[in-house]
Amino acid sequence: MLKYQDTILVLRKPNGVTAIQGNVFVNRGGHLDFDTSHQLARSSVVTLNEGELYLGNWGGDITQSFKQLIVDNSGVLYFEGDDGSSSIHKLYLDDLLIHASGELIFKRWKEGRDFILVKKTSENVEDALKKMKFEGYDPSKIQLADYNNEYWEVKGAPEPATYGAGLMLGVLGLVRYRRRQNSLR
């Protein structure tokens, strides 16, 4: 939820133009919003200190790459889009560092639509996994999956209650299907 005193920087340069060439610090109440792809220089370092990054869907698919994401205290990575959105969000990081007291929270992340990709050469990614939370997902099941020969994909796993709800919907669908088949006979 945005407050009156929040600072929002929306990056929406068109035609592959890089909006920021240097490093970015997003502090408490700050929101950095990527509405189109390639808004930061590939060599940029982004530091979140109780700030938020948004990957929007204003311009369709969003791909953003930068050198390092550092999280001091806490940070939020927010994926914009409803469940019906077909926009793909990809965030490529050479390194992901979450300091000892830090925490990175992923909001509205959806498997198959949103990708957090960290280079396999990152020295900090294993430690960072322990300091991440995917909203609505089991924190003990955050994992690295092989994305390609250069990048890991950071993924969440649904909470056990989500599995139960999905299973229940499947069972109800099967019962309804069988009843329909029996009534047609």
UniProtKB/TrEMBL annotation:
Protein name: PEP-CTERM protein-sorting domain-containing protein
Organism (species): Cephaloticoccus capnophilus
